[in-house]
Fold these 4 entries.
Entry 1:
Amino acid sequence: MASRAERTLVGEWWWTVDRAILVAIAVLMVAGLVFLMGGGPPVAERLGLSTFHFVSRQIVYLAPAVALMVAVSFLPPRYVRRAALLVYLGGLAMMIAALYIGPEVKGSRRWLTLAGITLQPSEFVKPAFVVLTAWLFAEGSRRRDVPGTFLAMLILPVTIVPLILQPDIGQTMLISIVWGCLFFTAGLHIFWVAGIGGIGLFGLFVAYELIPHVRDRISRFMDKEAGDTFQVDTALEAFAQGGWLGKGPGEGTVKRILPDAHTDFIFAVTAEEFGILVCIALVCLFGFIVLRGLYLAQRNEEPFCRLAVTGLVTLFGIQASINMMVNVHLIPAKGMTLPFISYGGSSLLSLALGMGFLIALTRKRPRAEILDRITPTRQPVKRSYGSRTAQDV
């Protein structure tokens, strides 16, 4: 596509970007449209909409999502941090606004309608939160004059309190788990990690006692006689009916009675129509992106990039795992989308932003540039190049 000697912006991007992750994300996006063509039409018809309403809207959202991901992937780490800060502050402000002026849906206030477009601000806060937390932990370990670790601990309650008030326990748990992963990866003592885990379990117990729909979901998961388990039972039936090879595209029947066949339970619809083998391939694709990201993070010599990439792929992998585990009844229902597969404009744009951050932070950069950036001095770093120094070069 471009010569390695070409110094244009696009040429440098092409030869420094990790093309394996880029291709895997593109495959997920295309697969999402294919699977949505199976799960979306029956739901649209039940709601009195045009047959391909959800598919066409997903395509409309996909174009700006791709543009956003590519544009963000051009950013150097410094501007990734700045962009994350702006997105975080804007998203947090909209989350608070949604508590007062957002529409109430199923007892929660999570959405805002702007210029006729409905957005879920918490979706955009997630990747920005990860990048900012990684930045703070990295600065705290690198510079003693910056209270980075304290601020990294403070940003967690600032973020999850509005989520609890919505309430959105699923997103609260997801953000808390990723924060704990970053806490551990930053090298802090295992005693603190265990303590935070205990606080998380206590918070879950409080949510079970005080929030009715959380108690209902956990009770139905533990005991089928405690309430309606129609969606989960139907999802399991989809896996049984599809078998290894599936019934074929468009031949599934479960999607006609599943209320969330195009969002939360699209994995089950995919199993019935395309088979368990395709579902396993989809799991492998998610796993590849996570493992590839962790591999690139391990090779990165800059603490901020290493932590941020670890957090972003952890966020991506855990969200995918939660959705798929709900579909096979391994955990209680959470109402969380399957990345790039489920229908949802806010989710798609948020994932594009997060993957844009990931691609930007995993781009290859000269070793000298990285060392200069992480050295806590303003003086040039001298390194030997034969008989010359880096300054001579």
Entry 2:
Amino acid sequence: MAVSISVVLLLLLLAVLFMRQGGLKISHALVCMLLGFYLASTSMAPTISSGLTATADMVSSLRP
């Protein structure tokens, strides 16, 4: 678990640095993809999923 959290934090740091640089290259996209896979295997996955679902439901209920 400790190794997984360390990898997630490292990938998160790299993803934030890549986003601040501006351009998204293939290597940057791979880091973001790996971050998603590692986040899916952590204990935060259900919280992230329910938060995204709630946000999507709220946005879909808005009428212009």
Entry 3:
Amino acid sequence: MNELQGAGVALVTPFNADGSIDFESLGRLIDFQIDEGMNYLVSLGTTGETATLTAEERKQVWAYTSERVNGRVPLVAGLGGNNTSEIVKQVASFDFSGYCALLSVSPYYNKPTQEGIYQHYKAIAEVAKLPVILYNVPGRTGSNMSPATTIRLAQDFKHIVATKEASGSFAQFSEIMRDKPADFLLISGDDPVTLPMMALGAVGIISVIGNAFPKEVATLASLCAAGNYAEAREIHNSLLKLTELCFVESNPCGVKYIMKQLGIIATDQVRLPLVPVSASLQATIDQELAK
């Protein structure tokens, strides 16, 4: 899966002021990412506010994104949830035209056992027509996919090809790197730890802040891949505070505000239960952007 090397971005879903999907801004965002050197795009990962889109809206976004990208860069579809049978149906019937892989988040809220997580992904792998990327983000799902479960899935299913790891545990990252099959990929799911994860052997990042700064994120990943950590640290340090601010009042509220301020999207509209960032956080972000 050379397509998953380097920097990918979990695209936001831009909205108009009335809450409808702003396809014009989405098109500009896609072109901006490609023009600035992003290696691949993820359509409707959790940063895309997938949970508050209707089934029809999700189909429209996937189709529009595939058409707009038009093969210029690899494209990954985000498709996950906590109702295994429903996700299996969606995966089995999904039109993967233009897509190279599927990113599926570990089941949230249910708090399954490790065996439950394994069986969930097994059911997806048995019907998926494309390679599958696991996504472990315990801070949002309420449960951690252990390294042992990740390795078991990687060994049992050849087309489970990678994991997007956002556990924040370097012990966990190291265990995956030590025990994984040679061709199984570890991908950072958390911008601030991309540099040290790539030093351990991760192949890149699926980024949030890359929505606003694709050139910088792509360059950071490229420098790390080349072993040039001194220059990579400069970019890492320059993005660190803004990345932190993106998550103060939940993702993607912060990064959408940054993108609006930079003229990348028209509004920072999000869908309830999310709300735009507060005036005080806007002021803090504006001060950081001015630097």
Entry 4:
Amino acid sequence: MSLYGHEDAWREWNAALAGPRMHHGWILAGARGLGKASFAMQAASELVAEPGIPQPPGSHPDILVLSHLPATKEDEKKRDEGKPFQLKRNIAVEQIRAVQQRLYTRPTLGSRRAIIIDPADDLEKGAANALLKSLEEPPQGTYFLLVAHRPGRLLPTIRSRCRILRFARLSDAQMDAALREQAPEASASARSAAIRASAGSPGAALEFLALDLAPVYELLDQIAQAGDPGFVLRGKLADAIGARPDRARQAAMLELARAITANRMRDTPVRAIPLLCDTNAELANLAAQFPVANFDPGLLVQETGGLLARLAATRDAAHG
């Protein structure tokens, strides 16, 4: 996928790469779905490449990527068979320590090695502390690229030892170009809905299309616009989500609810801002609990819809 909207990030990275002293730690910060992981892979490939040394066409021995592992042995088997599988919720300390063992040896092909952690804000506590030791005393020629959707969740000591490279959300025109390239089968109306719902994140927009979230988004928006005193819309929302939705679909619903709340901030009178902020904070708390909690899908729909229904009062305030 083309990396739309990353011109500033590339300029900053390339300037650092051409400088006399490349910083050893980088945080790639921005919303989920902006292409930070793809940027990290391309940037790491440039970092480890050296004149006169042939580079492998596929995976590179000097680019190490840490991410979520399969949740269970059965999920490992499903992965190996090319079937859908569940991931662990965090990146474990054992993964960091395994990489640190590699750092005692020299890079395989050249003089540089890149460590990509995606996403670094999902490091468990022990893993974050172990990573900090490597950031404090980085081996020569080793560089860390930490993909972070919520950099505030990283340890302050990790943030202080890294240079932050920020990724902005894309414009509607950039989003449309990305969707035309990656989802050419999507209709104009589907692209428009995906752009409205994804708040400048092409990854979120593609997930929106893949999961067929348009009906879910329209119902969430109706609840936020008109409320749901008779629970009719929440019943329709439960049907749209499905009786046994997977975690990806439930998580997407929460992200759509947060996007609706954020969009409402732009045209809401000042007196309604506190309610919007409270609603956004409660949705954020719900989204933060979701990866580690076992919510009943029906109750999650009711809770999410109930929070959005409060926003109807902000609409009344805007027109009252």
